[in-house]
UniProtKB/TrEMBL annotation:
Transmembrane segments: 6-24, 31-53, 73-93, 100-121, 127-146, 158-179, 199-216, 223-241, 253-269
KW Transmembrane helix (keyword) present: yes
Keywords: Membrane, Transmembrane, Transmembrane helix
Name of the protein in question: Uncharacterized protein
Domain of life, per lineage: Bacteria
UniProt key word NADP: no
Amino acid sequence: MPNSAYWYLGLSFVSLLLLTYTLIHARNVRAVFVFLMMNQLAYFIETVIYIFGCSYVYHPGLLKNSAYYDSNMGALTSNLLVIPTVAIMVAVFQLRWKWIIAMIAAIGVVEWLFVIIEIYTLNWWRIVYTAVGLLFYLPIAPILYARLQRPVRGILHSLLLFLCIAPIMGTLHVVPIMFFMNRSYDPGWFSDPAHDTTAFASLYYVFMTCVIVTFMKLQAGRVWVKFVAIALFIFIITQGLTTTKLLTIHKWWDPWFYCLFPATVYLLFRPISARFAKGG
């Protein structure tokens, strides 16, 4: 592995240690839910500024098949681990502003260091933008953490359920593509096929999450019927995308995986939906 990989892996390892310590200290599953929600909020921001805005490029050197997919690995380090971990620490430990400012400064130093050693390239983005964004992002975590103590219903229930499910859907959608090149999307938005695929996938998983939440909110119908309906619906969408040449499948197992894992996510999150409705 190149030296840059050790920096990213080390940052991921430290984040995992802090996340594990925080979740153990919290002693409640709400912390996990809020971590997922903050993960998705980070994904939303990254979709706008990184994928469609081309704000910066990561150079972890972990994937050799595509420079853009390798950059995505760096994005995952930031948005799957580092930033949401800091957010859940703020919520669980009820950190005051001086600690929040200190954490933002630490993230800024890491970002600056990565630029200096040339494993992270800024295009139009600036480190101060990260600091300002975190000032608005981090305080959301304690608000969500406190709100989940009380029953959640209606539109807010659907929104929080979406935020909880979406990062799992997005990660499971994109990561296999990065490692196994099992499918590619061709909307024609970017010259790099990997960039094109990532951009389309970033919207597609959001749509599929909305489908899962809709099925979950439906009161009528047996669970197994909804499971089959979700898988069948995705199969139809897949056929439509391949027919229009938006999607090219490269591995035999791809349609099975992308039809079954969202339906499985539906099954796994049904109890969580009920928990949100009860609170606590």
